[in-house]
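Input/output pair, single chain:
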Amino acid sequence: MVGREGLKTEGLDLCFDKLMVFGGTGGIGGTKMGGGGMITEWKDIPMELLLRIVSLVDDRTVIVASGVCSGWRDAICWGLTQLSLSWCKNNMNNMVLSLAPKFTKLQTLTLRQDKPQLQDNAVEVIASYCHELQDLDLSKSFKLSDSSLFAVAHGCPNLTKLNISGCSAFSDTALAYLATFCRKLKSLNLCGCVKAASDKALKAIGDNCNELQSLNLGWCEKVSDAGIMRLAYGCPDLRAVDLCGCVLITDDSVIALANNCLHLRSLGLYYCQNITDRAMYSLAHSRVNNKHEIWKSVKKNMREEEEGLINLNISQCTALTPPAVQAVCDSFPALHTCPGRHSLIISGCLSLTSVHCPCAGIQAHRAANALLHPAH
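Output:
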């Protein structure tokens, strides 16, 4: 509806003309409303219908629609809960400064950028007006400083999901500060936050964000066992943890996660070369040790097969041996090495090529049956 070269209203006018022709019994002259009214202009569309239309169009069109008239502006400002400005390639900062004071009911805001545009003043405006935000994506915002995290900490206490991956300027002091205010966080992406993601910050997260379920610490090279262990003790509901490239961690981190995070389903250990068989056996044994907790989950209408690891990345963990990894694979039937499923990723570990998932036995059994009972 809206061209890439600019935001235009012609598309909205065309949609209105079509609504007049096909939208009801009033014919071209107007669409008759159930209450006896007539839609003859854009401003006549009821708020409920307007918000339904807005939910079906792209975010650029929503912004155009908010400028059609004061009625539309008010309806959209009060009714809009999700917005993405990732399509904005050149002027995102000014757009945020303009829109944030209007769209105060936003719960989800995506500001991911291909090239850095956002500055602290835009995030401060968001924090000042959008107090109901639950999901905020600031990924690749290289220009942002600690001021932005301080503002979010004070203005957006209801955050459950925060993505600041690639925001390399944030410090661990600012991240620890945010954790003390945003205690409802369930998903946190810190991939590439080399300054912010430290043991100091992880201890603050473990102490305050007890509902955390997903954490990405990819390539945060300062993270060590001290931070991960504190996190495992403080966030028992962790389900997805990515430690790829965290070169300092050892078996102790994995053991802490296996023993304390009973619902762990995805674990990334790519290039964690200090991981040994001890960590693998702790994961394998956690299936048995946690059986009682799993049964309690089953009684809460959760299937047992939904519990336990369904993704494990141990690529480049060259110290591991086949028996230890096979023990993990045997303990968690959802882990697969077969083509097309690859939920157990072992690339770069030539010593592990003999590890097989249950599918290998099934395929071998079928092949044997085919030989014994050839088709006629």
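The chain has one domain: 80-348. The CA atoms of residues 258 and 286 lie 6 Å apart.
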